[in-house]
Design goal:
The protein is of the alpha/beta class. It folds into two domains: about 190 residues, 3-Layer(aba) Sandwich (Rossmann fold); about 50 residues, Gyrase A, domain 2, CATH 3.30.1360. About 30% of the residues lie in helices and about 25% in strands. It has a seven-stranded mixed sheet, sandwiched between helices. Strands 6-5-10-12-11 form a five-stranded antiparallel sheet. A hairpin with a 5-residue loop joins β11 and β12. The longest helix is centred in the N-terminal third of the chain and has 21 residues. The protein starts with a strand and ends in a 6-residue tail after the last helix. It holds the Pfam family Peptidase_M55. Keywords: Aminopeptidase, Hydrolase, Metal-binding, Protease, Zinc. One of its GO terms (molecular function) is metal ion binding. InterPro entries: DppA_N, Peptidase_M55, Peptidase_M55_sf.
């Protein structure tokens, strides 16, 4: 049994605002330790429950946050960027289940540090379904026939996961007060919860179906301002919807849609004046 673990940062225990997740800020280094320990609670429990391999993908910002020297010794770690599939790099049909840890709610929704990829995105749609990082990543997993068996993060991320993925196990390590304030468990208490939930998720994995993406999905990204839409619209095959800040791209499959989203959001970040 192979388990895939994607670890973001905004949904990690105790982290409440940008000073915890920005590498230039004072809270970042201590937050890396909490993030790494949180990944280890999940990895160690997965091995205890029969996993033969656990692949961990660092999925936040420059994607080099996890401290490899502190990781469980049997962990296989993907770290750094640029990665062709970003937050789901390395995920394929060989895995029995995927776990998303440190996840947060999508852009424009209530939740701690809620956003989708960049702060210039208001909404992302796959056909008519609004998705955030969680949903888009789950669709990629579904493309490979892999169910997302567990999501850990704040209460709003858990709600989003439960609405998208029937029977998913969720681990709520903090409650939203505002976008930059939380009521949180301690790391020690969260560790106990994560081990308990990981065990339950692996036990329950046969009851969770992959989130199968639509064939030939239409990707639509609504940006915060027109300049961002202009940059994203430079990618071949895209079109700005008239009178909006939404850019559309007709993809062949969800993998092409995912990579298009990566390119469009990277281009949009070049907007110098908002």
């Amino acid at each position: 049994m192979k388990i895939y673990l994607s670890v973001d940062m905004e949904g990690i225990t105790g982290l409440s605002d940008y000073t915890h997740v920005d590498s230039s800020r004072h809270n970042y280094e201590r937050s890396r330790i909490i993030m790494t320990d949180e990944a280890n609670f999940i990895v160690s429990e997965a091995f205890d429950r029969g996993a033969t391999e656990v692949l961990v993908n660092d999925s936040h910002s420059k994607m080099n946050n996890l401290l490899v020297e502190r990781m469980h010794p049997e962990t296989q770690l993907i770290t750094g960027d640029v990665k062709p599939f970003s937050m789901v790099q390395g995920l394929n049909s060989e895995f029995s289940g995927a776990i998303f840890a440190g996840y947060h709610a999508r852009a424009s929704m209530e939740g701690v540090m809620s956003h989708t990829m960049i702060f210039g995105v208001r909404n992302i749609y796959i056909n008519d379904t609004a998705v955030g990082e969680l949903g888009f990543n789950a669709y990629v997993a579904g493309h490979f026939g892999v169910p997302v068996i567990m999501v850990a993060g704040d209460d709003r991320a858990a709600k989003e996961a439960e609405e998208l993925i029937p029977n998913v196990t969720t681990a709520v390590v903090k409650q939203t007060i505002s976008r930059s304030a939380v009521k949180t468990l301690t790391p020690a208490k969260a560790g106990m919860l994560l081990k308990e939930k990981t065990a339950a998720a692996i036990e329950n994995r046969e009851k969770v179906k992959p989130l199968v993406p639509p064939d030939a999905p239409l990707l639509r990204i609504e940006f915060a301002n027109y300049g961002q839409a202009e940059w994203a619209g430079l990618m071949p095959g895209t079109e700005i919807e008239k009178g909006t800040t939404t850019v559309r791209f007709q993809a062949k499959n969800i993998l092409e849609a995912y990579q298009a989203m990566l390119v469009m959001t990277e281009l949009a970040m070049r907007t110098a004046f908002c």
